[in-house]
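User: Show me a protein chain along with its predicted structure.
Assistant: Here is one chain, sequence first, then structure tokens.
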Amino acid sequence: MMTEYDYWKIFPRMPRKVTLGDITVRDGFQHLEKFISTRAKIFYAEEMIFAGCKNIEVTNLGNAFLMPQFSDAEKVLAHLRSDRFRERCAKKGINIDDVCITAVTIREPGVDRAIELRKQGVGPDRLLMMVSTEEEHHFANSGCTLPQYWKECERAIKKCNDAGMKMCGTVSTIWGSPIAGATELKDAVEFTKRWLEIGAADIEHADHDGSASAPQVYRYFSMILDEIPDTRVHIAHFHETKRVASASVLAALQAGITHFEGTLGGMGGQPANFLDDCPVPGTGEYYYEDPRYVGLTCLEDMLVQIDEMGIEHGYNVNRVLWLGRQVERTVGHRLRSEAVINGRTLKEGHPKFARPGLKKLKEKLGESSGQKVPAEWGKVAKLPEKFRAS
């Protein structure tokens, strides 16, 4: 029996088209111990939209005292709602109404703030709140017990929906917790159902510390899609701590997930507790050993991976790679993308790296152009009997 070579026949749920959300300006920048200027935040939000992004997360509407990186939240949102930006989009053939702009809220006061901004005409389209299946991690991020927080989410979602916005419910610590260790996949499936029960529009399935392995990712998303088969509901969010996130992306694709998100340069993670020259609260002490080795799935690399699989994504790949190089200049150091250095795999190769003299040597030896084996050998290899498939 011969192996099936068609990838989509082996994994029939794997999509031919995906959505890739960009969360650089929010999740990417929140981890930095350097304030990123409002102008830079606006620049990257604009440019990612111009490059093809249809789902973008741009700020956090929580308490700016805790996370001063987002003290300019209203300015960023106001710009993206401005007539000037709408006109610039239209000139590029982009209808800004087709772009979903998200702001993270986490707690109910952030939702209330989003509603007020909505009344002013500058609010986001979508908000995000987050639960962790492991309560110590949840408490570290929210300051609440899980039952306490679920009740808050129920109230907040009703307010959000009544104001004409959608709520994304995040389920975190699916594959493990950086504080308490191993977790149960079935708990995350149950939490997903709880979010939908109280009115969430979609679910971000998050690996917030890079605990996921490809087999467990495939298993989890297969469990999810068996029970909740509408792929529009599900978003895969992976962190990169062991250089295995691309395997997790592939496993999620194989399971049938169609929506992913990442950040330029793979930036992101726990909010910074130091900004420029001053300690800030953030979410308290860091729960990792070295900030150089934490972050999210690198958007540039994930985009190239998906593009080279022949999966439709809607982005200008070269523009995103250029933006990845610019953001390294913005933050002032090398980030984690390999694709911004090595680029895409070119079918035409890189002739400039060819060594001189091959053509003359072949002529000298009497070999024809394109000849790859000695002329006296057979046209096809004769495989020894002991190596043949039975």
